[in-house]
Structures are given as structure tokens and as C-alpha cells.
């Protein structure tokens, strides 16, 4: 379901030369459209994906630390300021949803278990499940759209094995098929990015641009690597500046 149609960015004028307003990806950005029920944000480490997704979460009324619209707790105190300048344009305002943030997951688990107990998670504390098991348990048990829901994820794959990532893809398909959920996902995973019909925004090269799956960097780099790991590694270890050359 398409709930959030577009976000417009209103920057202070003049634009402050400090975080978050000086991120290269945002330099020429006025707005970002969400034309499909699933949107991915990709880009190198530090390109600004989390900053934008946390700002979206805050502007949409979620706790920027992660959780549902009602979650109220503090972890490391995220306040990215950008949110104040975001104007969200809704087809239908999501009254429900979830912001999954791998970075503050454990603080959220503490909060969840204080208010819910363990019952919604198979009667077992999320802390007693493995890192990846606890992610999947939360996704399966907590994210069942019964009403229009916006799901924001920041690196949901971070604890997941390749098989776990396929399990996440199946859940994404279920949410998408329910006709009730929209998902915006920051990811580095070439598995997740393969989700059919998704919009992929790259934050690389000083702009946010739409790319297709097969031209996306996670796909390209993984494919080149897997085609000939020995050749790839020889090049990697020879290169003087590893990161820039790839
Ligand atoms: N609170 C902050 N104060 C100052 N700079 C920050 C703050 N948070 C992030 N940054 C900087 O802003 C840039 C973008 O960070 P952000 O976390 O949005 O990147 P990202 O694309 O999510 O990266 P990753 O893939 O590593 O998660 C980084 O260079 C980071 O150092
Ligand atoms: Mg990030």
C-alpha cells in the first residue's frame, strides 16, 4: 500500500555548514518520491541513509530511537534536527507502523519486555534468543499489518544469515501482499534489494538517485566478487586505496 507519497525537504536558508544539513547526498535535494510500496536506501557507509530514515521516522511520529508510534524511551538520544524541515505528503496517513533500528535494538528490547513481557515473542525473552533469531522473532510477531502501517527499517539484515535474509524477503512479500503496509528500508544486502518492483535510491556520489537492481553497487560488487573471488582478491590486495578503487 502506498501511504507516504513524497517527502519535501525544507532546509534553513542559508544552509548551516554542519551535520546534518551539509551531507553531500542532500546538497541538491528538494524532494523524494515513494512511488512503490517498497523503497530501499543504499549507499556507502556514512552516505546519510540513517540520517534520512531517522528523520522520516521522527517526522512520521515514531520514536527516532526505534519502535512503534507509541514507544517512548531513550537510548542514546537521537535527534537529527532534519525532521523539523521535512514535509511528509501522505496518500493516507499511517496511524500504525514500526521503526526498526539495528543500532538501538537492544535498548528497544529492554523497553519492549518492560511493557509487553515475552508472550508476543514465543514466550521467550528476546535477550535469550540469538541476535538473528531475535530480529526475526520481532519481525514475525510484532509486524502483522491489520491497519495501514508504515514500516521503516535501518539495516534489518545486519544480524541475519543469508537464509535469515531470505526469511525477511518472505515477510516483506507477506506485508506487501497484505495491501496494508509500506516499507522503507536502508540496506547493504544484495538479497533484500532483489525484492520485485521496489524503488532503489542510491545515496552515493553526492546525490540521491534512483537506480535499478542490476546497476546497484551491492549487486554489482557482490556479483563481480562471486564470479571470480581469487581474481577479485588479488586486485583488492594490490590496490593502494582499497575502498576508492571498488
Ligand atoms: N550526530 C551526529 N553528529 C555529527 N555527524 C554525524 C552524526 N550522525 C552521523 N553523522 C555523520 O553523518 C554522516 C552520515 O551518517 P549516517 O549514519 O546517516 O550514514 P549511513 O549512510 O547510515 O551509514 P552506514 O551505512 O554506515 O550506516 C556520517 O559521516 C556520520 O559520521
Ligand atoms: Mg546507517
Automatic annotation (TrEMBL):
<dbReference type="InterPro" id="IPR027417">
    <property type="entry name" value="P-loop_NTPase"/>
</dbReference>
<keyword id="KW-1003">Cell membrane</keyword>
<feature type="domain" description="AAA+ ATPase">
    <location>
        <begin position="35"/>
        <end position="209"/>
    </location>
</feature>
<dbReference type="InterPro" id="IPR038729">
    <property type="entry name" value="Rad50/SbcC_AAA"/>
</dbReference>
<dbReference type="Pfam" id="PF13304">
    <property type="entry name" value="AAA_21"/>
</dbReference>
<dbReference type="InterPro" id="IPR051535">
    <property type="entry name" value="Siderophore_ABC-ATPase"/>
</dbReference>
<protein>
    <submittedName>
        <fullName>AAA family ATPase</fullName>
    </submittedName>
</protein>
<dbReference type="Pfam" id="PF13476">
    <property type="entry name" value="AAA_23"/>
</dbReference>
<keyword id="KW-0408">Iron</keyword>
<keyword id="KW-0406">Ion transport</keyword>
<dbReference type="GO" id="GO:0005524">
    <property type="term" value="F:ATP binding"/>
</dbReference>
<dbReference type="GO" id="GO:0006826">
    <property type="term" value="P:iron ion transport"/>
</dbReference>
<keyword id="KW-0472">Membrane</keyword>
<dbReference type="InterPro" id="IPR003593">
    <property type="entry name" value="AAA+_ATPase"/>
</dbReference>
<dbReference type="GO" id="GO:0006302">
    <property type="term" value="P:double-strand break repair"/>
</dbReference>
<dbReference type="GO" id="GO:0016887">
    <property type="term" value="F:ATP hydrolysis activity"/>
</dbReference>
<keyword id="KW-0813">Transport</keyword>
<dbReference type="InterPro" id="IPR003959">
    <property type="entry name" value="ATPase_AAA_core"/>
</dbReference>
<keyword id="KW-0410">Iron transport</keyword>
<dbReference type="GO" id="GO:0005886">
    <property type="term" value="C:plasma membrane"/>
</dbReference>
